[in-house]
Amino acid sequence: MSKNCSFGYQAWIKSQPSKFLPKVTGIDCFALEECKRGLSQLGDKENDTTVTLALSQELSSESYTLEGSPGNLRIEAGCETGLLYGVYGFLFRLRIGESIESISASEKPAVSMRILNHWDNIDGSVERGYSGRSLFFDNGQIGYDPDRLRDYARLLSSVGINQISINNVNVTLESAKLVTEEKLPDVAKIADIFRPFGIKLIIAVHFESPILLGGIKTADPLDDKVAKWWQETAATVYRYIPDLAGFLMKADSEFRSGPASIGRTQAEGANVIAKALKPFGGTIYWRCFVYNCMQDWRDTKTDRPKAAYDYFYPLDGQFDDNVIVQIKHGPMDFQVREPNSPLLGAMSKTKQGLELQIAQEYTGQQIDLYATSTQWEEILNHPVTDNRNTRDLINQEVKAIVAVSNTGNDDNWTGHLLAQANLYAFGRLAWNPSLTADQVTKEWIALTFGNEPNILNPLLDMMLKSRLVYEKYNAPLGIGWMVNINHHYGPSVDGYEYMKWGTYHRANNTAIGVDRTQKGTGYTMQYQPYVQNLYENKDTCPENLLLFFHRLPYDYKLRSGRTLLQYIYDTHFEGVEDVESFIKTWNSLKEYMPEEAYVQVKKRLDAQLENAKEWRDVVNSYFFRKTGISDEKGRKIYE
Ligand code: GCU
Q1: Which run of H or E residues covers position 51?
Q2: Torsion over CA of 163, 34, 407 and 479, rounded to 10 degrees?
Q3: Residue 607 neighbours by CB distance under 10 Å
Q4: How many CB atoms lie within 10 A of CB 628?
Q5: Under DSSP, is residue 200 helix (H, G, I), strand (E, B) or coil?
Q6: SS3 for 173?
Q7: What are phi and psi of 212, to 5 degrees?
Q8: What is the whole-number distance in angstroms between the Cα of residue 62 and the centre of ligand 1?
Q9: DSSP strand E in 180-245: where?
Q10: Which residue has the higher pLDDT, 123 or 43?
Q11: Pairing label, strands 50-55, 511-512
């Protein structure tokens, strides 16, 4: 890392400059430079070694092999980017203590599109950003530190991320202009920085750009003038950035216009852009986050989780082959616990993208510790049919794995130092979705703090538990929300209850939850029969999703024999105790930690404890006031 050498800045790419310069030979390329650079910073453990880089026609693009023997390490790959991945793979293995002669690996990414979406605004702010300001924009312009962007590119490339969108999906007039000749020279410079690292750019575009930028009266995708405008725009963009990955669109969503607002389908909207991008090999990523955000809370028929499926499923087969429909993993919106979207795997004739969120919008905002990998592992394990899970869709229907980024210009990139693990895990799981949360978290700890068991074991334990701990003090059993409106941090049980967003728990003094079974809103019917049956029935529904699918009385007996109400009380007390134990664990690691890392995380854990207490007291009081029933164990609940 070139500029700032603080511990957090180096992330998992540790830099320890040394005089050791190994022999690196083979094809003269960027990967070779990266190899020399990486090795020179490793210390002098592996002297007298020759590393050889070679292209091999037998390996498919991006895949690589590593073959070690005494004094030699050979990296082969199908293309230069593959060599680069091979170099990082080699450096990581060395760093976690493998010896050169024992290294033997053959790696191939599971899917060819491994994408980060930045929600960065042109003014330099980041929507749902908890790590400082934008790395790309500043004060209404494209503005960045080129050295820092290069370091960022290295971080992303080292875990196999190969596409990034740079601007917020909520495109403004200003950011819409990124596709114009006024801005393209600067966008192209960003593409130039990322290109050697095998990373292509995506630009988020505005549905109404033909109107806003083209002066046409309509954005109707079936209008010839509109089609021509997109074609000319694509041609201009590709003149500046010939390897652009494509465009990203959020349409008909949260007050944004789209094809539905003018009586056209999502497929018609996507295809006009797909056709414009097609000659250049580009893809249109078309988001499925479409729902009615003007619902009346009195309306119990409309059920927000049903929306994406209702809009998109009937269009299966109508999307051009360079359209990826980008589906949020859950049918709501990145909550701590949701079932998978029924749309995932439902459309056999449509290319799909699985959208995850690394940014901890509803999951603690990079103040609270939350290892997203544990949630992603569950998402990948979620059944689609009786003999297929979501992981099985990858590289079949699912052609892209996408995540909303958690990075910004904070010194340590992610605000919470331990949230770096989430960025790392995303790249690793997109490359190889069969890896477990345990494996990727271990890797990250080893690369960041070393693999001394004194650090590795307690930290791993704490990180792997963190998601369940967060869930304990939040909204119970999959009901979601209950957060402060707009900024989404901290508890407000009725915060979204009477709002227009379709996010209701409908608690009264006897029951809570939404009946989404066949007899209720019918949401369960969107799943294939195996999953439908699982969720339809209270006895087979996973307990942690009970309130997502069922409306239950507070005295409903859970499998443990506890009542629902007592479960809510218990988990909220436990959540606070668990955070207290995190703090103890972290304190016990102090002696093994760089001071800077210790202090940074300690501050966040202290803030998390305050948050957990606030959640505990607000949620418990809420239900105590509704029910008048005290905690069986007599613990303090505020009246
Ligand atoms: C959430 C989030 C918004 C974001 C939206 C999206 O609703 O709160 O800030 O724009 O998701 O995914 O587009």
Answers
A1: strand 50-55
A2: 60
A3: 15
A4: 9
A5: strand
A6: helix
A7: -65, -40
A8: 32
A9: 200-205
A10: 123
A11: unpaired
- pLDDT single digits (tens) 466-512: 999 999 999 999 999 999 999 999 999 999 999 999 999 999 999 99
Residue of the CA atom closest to atom 11 of ligand 1:
333
CA distance 355 to 101: 39
Helix (H) or strand (E) holding 553: strand 552-553
Query: What confidence tens digit (pLDDT) does each residue in 264-277 have?
Result: 999 999 999 999 99
Q: Which of 181, 243, 254, 299 is catalytic?
A: 254
- Ligand 1 test: best mutation among 117, 126, 128, most atoms within 8 Å of CB? 128
Burial of 381 (0-12, 13-18, 19+ CB in 10 A): exposed
Q: From the CA of 290, how far away is ligand 1's center (Å)?
A: 11
- CA of residue 1 to ligand 1 center, whole Å: 32
Each residue of 280-309: b (16+ CB within 10 Å) or e? bebbbbbbbbbbebebeeeeeeebbbbbbb
Q: Which helix (H) or strand (E) holds 83?
A: helix 80-95
User: How does DSSP classify residue 165?
Assistant: E
Ligand 1 atom nearest residue 328's Cα: 12
- Asked whether the beta carbons of 366 and 415 are under 8 A apart, the reply is yes
Q: What is the pLDDT of residues 561-593, one digit of tens each?
A: 999 999 999 999 999 999 999 999 999 999 999
Among 254, 286, 499, the mutation site with the greatest number of ligand 1 atoms within 8 A of its Cβ is: 254
Mean pLDDT of 91-106: 91
Query: What 3-state DSSP class applies to 201?
Result: strand
Q: What is the DSSP string of 7-43?
A: HHHHTTS-----S---EEEES-SHHHHHHHHHHHTS-
Q: Take residue 179 and report the two structure tokens written for it.
A: 């596709």
Please tell me the distance between residue 252's alpha carbon and the centre of ligand 1 in angstroms: 13
Q: Which helix (H) or strand (E) holds 353?
A: strand 352-357
Q: Is 304 in the pocket of ligand 1 (CB under 6 A)?
A: no
pLDDT of 438 reads 98
120: tokens are 């960065």
What are the structure tokens assigned to 168, written together?
């917020």
Q: Is the CB of 125 under 6 A from ligand 1?
A: no
Q: Please report, for residues 130, 132, 335, 482, 495, the alpha-carbon distance to residue 488 in angstroms, rounded to integers and kept in the order given.
A: 12, 17, 11, 9, 10
The Cα-based distances of 577 to 29, 248, 332 in angstroms read 53, 43, 29
Q: Residue 168 CA: which ligand 1 atom is closest?
A: 10
User: CA 400, CA 111: separation in Å to the nearest integer?
Assistant: 7
> Three-class SS of residue 106?
strand
pTM: 0.97
Token pair listed for 448: 């960041």
Structure tokens at 60: 């498919």
CA–chain centroid gap for 217, Å, is 37
Strand 163-165 relative to strand 113-117, pairing: parallel
- Respond yes or no: is residue 107 known to be catalytic: no
Handedness of CA 141, 147, 148, 151 (dihedral sign): positive
Catalytic site residue from 120, 208, 252, 333: 333
333 Cβ inside 6 Å of ligand 1: yes
> How far apart (Å, rounded) are the C-alpha atoms in residues 268 and 320?
9
For residues 166 and 232, give the distance between their C-alpha atoms in angstroms, rounded to a whole number: 22
Instruction: Name the residue with tokens 């004060």.
Output: 139
Q: From residue 205, how far is each of 58, 178, 539 by CA, in Å?
A: 38, 8, 45
